[in-house]
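Long-time lurker, finally posting.

We've been working with Protein-lysine N-methyltransferase SMYD4 (Bos taurus) and I want a structural starting point before designing mutants. I don't trust myself to interpret raw outputs, so I'm hoping someone here can both generate the C-alpha cells and explain anything notable. Sequence follows.
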Amino acid sequence: MDLPVDEWKSYILQKWSLLPKSIQVTISTAETLHDLFLHSSPLLQPEDEMFLKRLSGGYLVGKDPDASLFYREKGNQKFQAKDYMGAAVLYSKICLKDIVRAQTHGYPERLQPKLLLRKAECLVTLGRPQEASQTVTDLESSFAAKPTLSASQFQILQRTLCRVKVKVQEKENLPEIFPEALTKTFEGVDLREENEQIPGASSSVSLHIDPLKGRYLVATKDILPGELLVKEDAFVSVLNPGEVPLRPRGLESKWDIQVTNGDLHCHRCLRHTLAPVPCDGCSYAKYCSQECMQQAWDRYHSVECSLGALLLTLGVFCHVALRSTLLARFEDVGKVTKKLCGEMSNQGICLPESKNPVQTLKYDLGGEGDKKDKAVETPIPGCDINGKYERNYNAIFHLLPHTENHSPEHKFLCALSVSALCRQLEAAGLQAFTTDLKPTKLKAAEPPVLCAELSVWGVAMLRHMLQLQCNAQAITTIQQTGSKESLITDTRRVRLATALFPVVSLLNHSCSPNTSVSFIGTIATIRASQLIRSGQEILHCYGPHESRMGVAERRQKLRSQYFFDCDCPPCEREKQRPSAGPGRGAFRCHRCRALLQGDDVLSCSGPACMESVSRDLLVSRLQDLQRQVGAAQKHLRNGRLEVAIQLLLGCQSDAESFLSAEHSVVGEIEDALAQAYAALGDWEKSATHLQKSLQVVEVHHGPSSVEMGHELFKLAQVFFNGGRLAMSEDVFNC
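Top reply, 14 upvotes:
Generated this for you. Predicted structure of Protein-lysine N-methyltransferase SMYD4:
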C-alpha cells in the first residue's frame, strides 16, 4: 500500500473537486514544492483531521493487556490443529520474545533447567549446534552447582538431555544445507574492487550525465556475466505491511489473527523471524533482536512509535518520506537545513532539461585516466565538490521528484497527507528535528529538539513522497506458499519492503536489461546477466520486461509511472514489426496442429487446412480447462496425488488438442504433474514433466530470467533427489 488508504484518497479527491477554481489553479501552477506545500497545507481543516483520526483508529497498534489472552487462545487452537507455524506467529504477538528474555523477566528458578533444555532443543532444530552444545554445557554446570530437582525429575531430565546431546552430534556431523550455505556465501561476497568515486559500486563502472536521460552508469571495461557491479545497503527502507485491512466496526473481536509481513520480518533489517522482539511502546513494530530494536529506536522509531496507526493509513510512501528526513538528522543537519531552505525554491534544481546542460556531461570516475581528465566545472547532482558520489541524504535529496509530471490531484493528496503528519508531530510534542544532532550523542532518553521550521521538513517530506513513484525500489523475497506440513509446496516472489538506494537509482531502464538484482535483507546486489562490453550502459529493468508483456503495454506502464517513452532496443524492434504473428497464448487447429489466426473467427494457418472456429468457443473451452487444472491442484495440495495425476493427464490431453505448445496453461499443467510425481518419489517422471514446463517458462520469460533460474533450481533438486548427481550438477553449470 504505497499511497494512503482508499477512504482517505477518496475524501481528499472530493475535497479537491469542491475547491474554488482559483485555488485549484494556484496549486496546479505552483512553481516550487515550497509554494505547493504553502498553498495546500492551510486547506487541511480540523474536520479533515478528525476524519483521518477515525480512519487511523481502524489500526490497532497500541499495547493492550487483554490481547495476550486472545492470541494465546488462538495460538492454542492452531497448535491443536497441528498448524505449528501459525501457532508460533500468534504466540509471538503476545510479546515475550524468547527463552533469554523469559529468563531476564523473572522466570522461576526451579523451572530454569527445563527452560535451558528447551533452548538447546530449539537451537538444534534451528541448525545452530555449537550454541546448543554450549547450552547443554551450561545446563550440566547448573546441575552440578545447584541441584534443585527431585531424583525422579532429575532422571527424566537426564534422559532428555542425552537425546539432545545425540542430536547435537548428528547436526555437527551433517554438511550444511545447500540453500543456507548459498545465502551465507552471498552475504559474504564483496566487490572485487570498490569504486573510489562511487561507494558501493565496482571499479568497472563510471558515472555519466546526459541532458536528456540524466545520470547513468557505463562499463569502463568488458564485464563478464555474473560479475558483481553494485552491493549497497538501503539509505532508508520501510517494511511493506501487506494487506492489513482496516478493522470494521461492530466486530465481536477487535484483534486480527491474519499473518502479515510485519509479523514475520524484522522491521529494521528485514530478517525473517518467528520470535520477534516487540517494541516496548507499540504492538506493530517488531525486530529480530534487541540490537535491531535499539538501533531503530535511536534513529527513527522514537518519533514513529506513537504514529503507527497514522502511518499505516497514510501509506508506505509517506512513511518512507518521514523516515528519510529523520535519518537526515544524523548528517550535517545545518547543511541539510540550508539546502532545504535554499535549493528547494530553485525550480530547475537538478533537472536534466537545465538550460546549462554542459555543466559536466561526463565523469570517468571509475577509470584509470589522469586526474586532470577528471576536472569538473559543476559537480554531478549527488556528488561532492571533488566529484565523489555521496551515498547519503544529499544523494537522496537530488533524486528527481518530477513535480511537473504528477497530476494536480495527486500533488494535493501528497501535500495534505504530509501536512496531517506534520500537525500530528506538533500536536504530540514530538521533538523530531534538530540543528545540532550528532549520532554519537543520541540517546533514547534524550529526544532531540523540535525544529522551529517544521514546514521546511514538511516540504522535504513532500519532495520525497513525489520522488518515490519513480525512484522507489521494491525489496522482494521468495515466499513459500502452502503449509510446510504439506507434501507439495511452492514459492512466489513477494514485495517485502520499499526502499531508496542512492547507487541503484543511477541505473536507467531497459526492457531487456543486462543486469539482475537480488536482495538479502536491506542489501541490494546487482550482477551482470550477460557480457557487457566496455562503453556500454549498465541497465536495469524497472518492471515491464519484454518477456512478460508486449511493447504497447510496457510503454504505457513506463509512461504512466516513470514519465518517459521507452526507446530501448526491444521496444524499437517490436515497434517495427507490430504484426509479427500469434503470441504465446495462441490456439491451434485440432486437425493439423497449425496455429489459428484471426479475430472473432479463427482460421487455420496450415496451407491445406480449411478449419475455422469461433474465438468465444475456444475461450470458453480454455476457461473450463483452467477450472479443471485448479481442481487438480487442490487435490495435489491435499495429498490426493493419484486423483490429481489422473485429472492432470486428462487436462494435458485436452490442452494438446487446441492450445499451442508454448501456452502458459500447458506449462502450468506440466509443472503440476512434476510436483505430483515428485511427491510420489517418481523422480524420473517428475524431471520429464519439469523439463517440458521449462520450455514454456523460457519462451515466456527468457533464458536469463529469474523465473528460469527458479525452474532450473527445481530441476536440479529433482535430479539430486533421484540420484542423478551428474545431471544435477550439469543444471547448475549450464
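Before you design anything, note these points.
The chain has 27 helices and 15 strands.
The mean pLDDT is 79.
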